[in-house]
Amino acid sequence: MKKVTSLFLIMLMIVSFSAKSQTIPNLDFETWTSNTAASNWSSKISLSVLSIPMFNFEFGTKSTEKHGGSYAMELKAHTLDLSEMDYGMITVPPILQIGQTSAFNLTPEAIELLGNLSELDFSDISTLLQLANQAQGLISEGVSISSKPGYVKMWVKSSVADTIMVGAYTTSGTGDQRTPTQAGMAMVTDATNWTEVTVTLSDLVSTAPDKLGIVVVGGGLDVATTTSFYIDDVTVEGHANNILTSDLTFKVYPNPAVDIVKIDMDGEYSINIYDVMGKKVLSQTQLQGINDIDVSALRTGVYMLEVTQGEGTQMKKIVIE
User: Fold this and answer.
1) 8, pLDDT greater than 70
2) Distance separating alpha carbons of residues 68 and 231, to the nearest angstrom
């Protein structure tokens, strides 16, 4: 699988339920202020490298290759020449966010993270917080919401088979003192036809959110600049609580696995396994101690294992070969 990219991988994923839609302007990409600017969305990056202004460009353009209505968002990558700074050529995958962004300063720490994303464990909250600290200015504050969301859904498509990652998060607070309250993530790896992606949001804290962020990234660090990624018809729906925590202790092995994944945890717990699109593909409850989980019916690929004990939930990436 291609390296999933971008410093927006703030948090992780999964689990919600329920039904109330929210009204947020231009979720269908029908309103544009120019051919590169959809109202209420940003695909623009103002980039400085080591505090030196370098680039200012848009990843997105208005497209008639749509899922519904008249228009969709088309995204393409950009290539940066940083050879004079000993970083060589860097392809920046296309990034789309709801809300507005400010200038982003690419620090040495951020550059190092970009080069090692494929080795990071995104199920570790500390890793995600590290990425978030490097992403100041790159990540939009989002848009105002009137109630807690549970699902973010959208239709996506790519001109060739490639990874599309969708992240969503909510926050509360004022100014720079905003607290992350929910987070979720989903991926699709082969959307050459219009495909619906569902991101489910887990609670990080009990505080009610007042802003929602959505981030879409097309491809990995080796994405071709000729590849087009299309985004259309976003919806935001209701919620049922689940708490995301890093306090649970359990073992998962072997990983990668073929037919059986063993889970070792004290006390009673339950598990869910989700595919890269956020679809639940396996669920077991009332487990205790060491359990053999039969994954022989699952396709080869990357999955997210969700382990729940009491009110706590923790996610871990597993690979099925």
Assistant:
1) no
2) 11
Tell me whether strands 251-253 and 143-144 are parallel, antiparallel or unpaired. unpaired
Query: What is the tens place of the pLDDT at every residue in 133-146?
Result: 555 556 677 899 98
Give which of 102, 105, 175 is closest to 133, Cα–Cα: 105
Kindly state the average pLDDT of the residues 300-312: 83
Helix (H, G, I), strand (E, B) or coil at 287: strand
Cis ω on the peptide bond leading into residue 256 (within 30° of 0)? yes
Q: Which residue, 90, 103, 89, is CA-closest to 45?
A: 103
**Is the predicted pLDDT of residue 130 greater than 90, yes or no?**
no
Answer yes or no: are the C-beta atoms of 199 and 13 closer than 8 Å: yes
Does residue 200 contact residue 184 with C-beta atoms inside 8 Å?
A: yes
User: 72-85 pLDDT, tens per residue?
Assistant: 999 999 887 767 66
Give me the residues paired with residue 263 across strands: 252, 291
First-to-last CA distance in the chain?
12
Is 75 in contact with 228 (CB distance < 8 Å)?
yes
Alpha-carbon distance of 290 to 143, in angstroms, equals: 44
Taken in order of first residue, the domains within the chain and their CATH numbers are 32-240 (2.60.120.260), 245-320 (2.60.40.3080)
Q: Which of 42-51, 107-116, 281-290 has the lowest mean pLDDT?
A: 107-116
Three-class secondary structure of residue 214 per DSSP: strand
CA distance 148 to 240: 9
Exposure string of 202-218, with b = 16+ CB inside 10 Å and e = fewer, is bbbeebebbbbbbbbbb
Tokens representing 201 are 């949001």
What's 2's DSSP letter? P
